[in-house]
Amino acid sequence: MKIGVLALQGAVEPHVVALRALGATTVAVRNPTELALVEALVLPGGESTTMAKLLRLNELEEALAERLAGGMPAFGTCAGMILLASGVLDGRADQRSFSAIDIDVRRNAFGRQVDSFEADLDVTGLAGGPLHAVFIRAPFVERAGADVEVLATVGGHPVCCRQGRVLVTSFHPELSGDVRLHQHFLELAAT
Hints:
Elements: E1 2-6, H1 12-21, E2 25-29, H2 32-35, E3 40-43, H3 48-57, H4 61-69, E4 74-77, H5 79-84, E5 85-88, E6 101-106, E7 117-121, E8 131-135, E9 140-144, E10 149-154, E11 157-163, E12 166-169, H6 180-190
Parallel strand pairs: 1-2, 1-3, 3-4, 4-12, 5-6
Antiparallel strand pairs: 6-9, 7-8, 10-11, 11-12
């Protein structure tokens, strides 16, 4: 299985390293031709409005929307979570989200850059003890639909969710050195 990593902006390389450590073949996705080569996609953290603009500029927006609507497995971290959500409560009016998972998110919900933090999370279904999570200007979920499974919370706010073959986190698992969520995603994508 070829796993794409959206490579327009953000924490691309750490995801590639994590996926390759698990034996996955990765493809940097910057255009529709590269997107067509992959069976699943990681949307990394970064700046969601910038990523949305770059998706448009690189003519990826519609191709990605079609693939996600067709059921392509996706893993969105931080900004990737925002892009995959049904709604962005405090986004720009022209900011597109792809409704791949039935959640509404709030950008920078935990605060500004100086409010970034790390925490150990109990993630439902993840063996091996708590997962160390890195939160950088992180969003959180304000509303999760009935078919969304909340896997972890911080302060009562969902920060890790799954619906079908779409997994999202408001934190950066690629920065912790713990590849268990990437492994979980590979297992979801293979089903």
